[in-house]
Amino acid sequence: MNGLLPEQVARAHLAAGRAKEALLAIEPAAKVPNASHTVLDSYANALRALGRGHDRLAVRRRAAVDFPDSGVAWHNLAAALGDLGSWIEAGQACQRAFAAGQDAPETWLVYSRALAGQNLLEAAGGALDEALRRRPGYIDALAQKSKLIWAITNDADQAAAVFPGHPTYLIYIADTYRIAGQADRALALLNEGTRREPNDLNLQHALAGVALDQGKLELATTAAAAALNLAPSHPVSLEAWASACLASGHINEAFAASGRLVEVQPFSQTALALHATTARLAGALDYDRLYDYEQFVRTYDIAAPSGWNSVDAFMIDLAAALASLHTISGQPPEQSLRLGTQTPGDLRAFDLPALDGFFAAVDPLIRAHLTALGSGQDPVRARNTGDYAMTGCWSIRLGAGGHHVDHIHPHGWLSSAFYVQVPPETDADDSREGWLQFGRPSYRGLVGLEPAHFKRPVPGRLVLFPSYMWHGTIPFTSPDPRMTIAFDLTPA
């Protein structure tokens, strides 16, 4: 790429999905004290692509300081803050963007999310109206407004009425009903849509997914076959076909399709989870390679971080810090937890000494895990650079009967569970109440595959495992809470 500016080289690498190469191309130019705004922008985008959200935020802060009259710089800062759940500061950055003349609909959308994150729902709706006044039909704003109306009114029809009655918006309308628990209406809309537009790939994908969720296996298979015919190598088409075959008991077809999916997306956690499941049913060696529990699932106990005399003293302070953040009642929608709460935003966005101590305590454990993994040809070790980026961090507090349904983390590489508080039942080896379990997939209609590996929760203990591994927890009966911290990692 001779003759191109560093930011041009970085953009080319990012467009091709080569985030690490983009970072190498742009970082030297970004380290110069008087780096241009475009250089800093490309640098922040490369960091974001690598999952280094806090490093990206630092660059966005620098750009806002270096270019205080740039509305774009303040918009970018607001977006980075919002991605980490720092809603108040994100809103303030949006206001600086507006004051600097930035009046784009994208900025009003970021502002709306910041207001909604502070539970200022009416003001958030007003900001969305401003975005739509500037760009009628702006799909991201319409989707956000629909979700906001549903959150306020619990009225699916009112939420769906946000979208114009045009085929372009049919998938979004159907998704509104699906989220509202009216999957039959979503299914009817998508089914009618594919009858009118049989060559619409997105409609066939959506229909296959909703039909499968509802156990309509014949319809799901028909839609998946149509999608596969339209786009034989499209990852969503392959996933839809493999999933439909799996649910219908056509294991060999599912195994073949999931294998092709992994060839197309070798590091997709969703593809790897699907392929491991079909391999297990087919008795193929791929399952043992992907679900090597001895090599890939390991536990580590923290040492007391600086400022604390013991691990026990630290855990008391950490539990208190997390309790102050569990302020939202009720479980978040479309998450794995049941009968519990999740902290808002990213824990790294909160200025609390105990959280700083936690990140300092787990860093050497993560690095020890990467060293223990080493290198290899499998999808875990092939990506191991010896370094990592944390892509999200949150806390879960479960009450009596609480648990996680079996799930994966599609945007991770390695995932985790760190135990802060556990109920007394976790000491029982026979019932394994509150334990972490691995290996049982949650595909609809799939029965007979039970958990194959377990980890007992112990305060101060960190469990690390591949993000594609199916995992969940066993319900417990005690009123004492089960509080954890979780994060995802990607290679850096």
Short description:
With 492 residues, the protein is an alpha+beta fold. The chain is built from 21 helices and nine strands.
Taking the alpha carbons of the first and last residues, their distance comes to 23 Å
* Mean pLDDT level: 91
Strand order of the largest sheet: 1-7-4-9-3-2
The CATH architecture designation of the domain at 294-491 is Sandwich
Low-confidence stretches: none
What is the number of E strands?
9
Provide the succession of SSEs: HHHHHHHHHHHHHHHHHHHEHEHEEEEEEE
Structure in words:
The protein has helices at 6-15, 19-30, 37-49, 53-66, 71-83, 87-99, 105-117, 121-134, 139-153, 156-160, 170-179, 183-196, 201-213, 217-230, 235-247, 251-264, 269-282, 285-290, 293-296, 311-323, 353-373, and strands spanning 298-301, 337-342, 388-404, 414-421, 436-438, 453-455, 461-466, 471-473, 482-491. The chain is α+β, with helices and mostly antiparallel strands. The protein has a domain at 294-491: q2cbj1_9rhob like domain (Jelly Rolls, Sandwich). The strands form two sheets. The chain has a six-stranded antiparallel sheet with strand order 1-7-4-9-3-2. The longest helix is centred in the C-terminal third of the chain and has 21 residues, at 353-373. The mean pLDDT is 91.
